[in-house]
């Protein structure tokens, strides 16, 4: 039972990342009809927003500390972050410690701007082009963005720790009535799942209960009719592209303490996220979320040592095998809509 609960928690952790990225992918496909292979790069850019803010907050200058000496007996030179000069050592150290959560505020405007520029500058020229053309151009854009990140930040992973308050583990077993310390799980991974559910809930609430969201949903169903009503649906879809980019970016920001950012992390998640979208059903937002969580849990169970000993390598292919089975039995995916990508 302990192993089962632990694997479910692991699956929800990774499945949350799949669901967030797949949600953004589905938003873009559902509104603009574009298959965006650069979406994984947006996840990567979000992660490096956290790296960038952490480095900005840690910028320092050299001062002479008269109370300390070096090995020659001279007053020691120490590096003091500039933020200490503005906010004092205690509050400055707290800001540096909480760099990852603070990166949420830093990343939102950046990701929206990146998304809008990407849509207006490139992708809008491919709306009426075949999906193969869209895949080629967005995949090329993803490679370019990946190489830009590699040039500025290097090829090695960059550790970006969570705040000290979330570095420990939570006794999940005791919470559900089991013996203490039978099921413990890192605080930050639990926080990531909660954060993902909040973002997903906010996106669904925005689309369901706001006038803007209602118009977007109407445009997804019948773009021409909405346009005939005098509504600038293209402008609203551009904003939705920016929102989808922000969702992917926030997923990357909060994932940095779990997986140290590197230039190819976007590609690592992209293919799996597209499988999630297809399994959930192209154009289906609930399907993307459901498939992300389910496939994350399935992959977690397939990674158990007992399963790997029985079927070596199954953890690497289980998602694709499930996708094949689902698409053979339900060609539109779990919650796919009729007519989507069937022309």
Automatic annotation (TrEMBL):
<protein>
    <submittedName>
        <fullName>Amino acid/amide ABC transporter membrane protein 1, HAAT family</fullName>
    </submittedName>
</protein>
<feature type="transmembrane region" description="Helical">
    <location>
        <begin position="237"/>
        <end position="258"/>
    </location>
</feature>
<feature type="transmembrane region" description="Helical">
    <location>
        <begin position="310"/>
        <end position="329"/>
    </location>
</feature>
<dbReference type="Pfam" id="PF02653">
    <property type="entry name" value="BPD_transp_2"/>
</dbReference>
<keyword id="KW-0029">Amino-acid transport</keyword>
<comment type="similarity">
    <text>Belongs to the binding-protein-dependent transport system permease family. LivHM subfamily.</text>
</comment>
<feature type="transmembrane region" description="Helical">
    <location>
        <begin position="42"/>
        <end position="64"/>
    </location>
</feature>
<keyword id="KW-0813">Transport</keyword>
<dbReference type="InterPro" id="IPR052157">
    <property type="entry name" value="BCAA_transport_permease"/>
</dbReference>
<keyword id="KW-1133">Transmembrane helix</keyword>
<feature type="transmembrane region" description="Helical">
    <location>
        <begin position="98"/>
        <end position="123"/>
    </location>
</feature>
<dbReference type="GO" id="GO:0006865">
    <property type="term" value="P:amino acid transport"/>
</dbReference>
<dbReference type="InterPro" id="IPR001851">
    <property type="entry name" value="ABC_transp_permease"/>
</dbReference>
<keyword id="KW-1003">Cell membrane</keyword>
<feature type="transmembrane region" description="Helical">
    <location>
        <begin position="16"/>
        <end position="35"/>
    </location>
</feature>
<dbReference type="GO" id="GO:0005886">
    <property type="term" value="C:plasma membrane"/>
</dbReference>
<feature type="transmembrane region" description="Helical">
    <location>
        <begin position="190"/>
        <end position="216"/>
    </location>
</feature>
<feature type="transmembrane region" description="Helical">
    <location>
        <begin position="270"/>
        <end position="298"/>
    </location>
</feature>
<keyword id="KW-0812">Transmembrane</keyword>
<keyword id="KW-0472">Membrane</keyword>
<dbReference type="GO" id="GO:0022857">
    <property type="term" value="F:transmembrane transporter activity"/>
</dbReference>
């Amino acid at each position: 039972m302990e192993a089962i609960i632990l694997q479910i928690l692991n699956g929800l952790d990774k499945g949350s990342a799949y669901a967030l990225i797949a949600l953004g992918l589905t938003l873009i496909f559902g509104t603009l009809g574009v298959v965006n292979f650069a979406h994984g790069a947006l996840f990567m850019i979000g992660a490096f927003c956290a790296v960038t803010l952490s480095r900005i907050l840690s910028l320092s200058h050299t001062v002479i500390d008269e109370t300390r000496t070096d090995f020659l007996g001279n007053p020691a030179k120490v590096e003091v972050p500039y933020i200490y000069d503005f906010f004092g050592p205690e509050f400055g150290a707290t800001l540096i410690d909480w760099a990852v959560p603070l990166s949420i505020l830093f990343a939102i405007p950046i990701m929206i701007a990146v998304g809008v520029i990407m849509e207006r500058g490139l992708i809008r020229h491919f709306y009426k082009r075949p999906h193969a053309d869209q895949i080629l151009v967005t995949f090329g854009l993803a490679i370019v963005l990946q190489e830009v990140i590699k040039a500025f930040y290097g090829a090695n992973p960059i550790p970006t720790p969570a705040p000290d308050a979330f570095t420990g583990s939570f006794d999940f077993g005791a919470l559900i009535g089991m013996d203490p310390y039978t099921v413990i799980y890192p605080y930050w991974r639990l926080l990531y799942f909660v954060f993902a559910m909040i973002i997903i809930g906010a996106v669904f609430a925005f689309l369901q209960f706001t006038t803007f969201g209602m118009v977007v949903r109407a445009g997804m169903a019948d773009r021409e009719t909405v346009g005939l009503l005098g509504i600038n649906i293209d402008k609203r879809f551009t904003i939705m592209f920016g929102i989808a980019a922000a969702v992917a970016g926030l997923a990357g920001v909060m994932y940095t303490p779990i997986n140290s950012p590197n230039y190819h992390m976007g590609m690592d998640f992209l293919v799996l996220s597209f499988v999630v979208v297809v399994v959930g059903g192209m154009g289906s937002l609930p399907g993307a979320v459901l498939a992300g969580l389910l496939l994350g849990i399935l992959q977690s169970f397939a990674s158990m040592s007992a399963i790997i000993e029985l079927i070596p390598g199954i953890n690497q292919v289980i998602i694709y095998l499930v996708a094949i089975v689902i698409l053979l039995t339900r060609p539109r995916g779990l919650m796919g809509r009729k007519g989507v990508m069937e022309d």
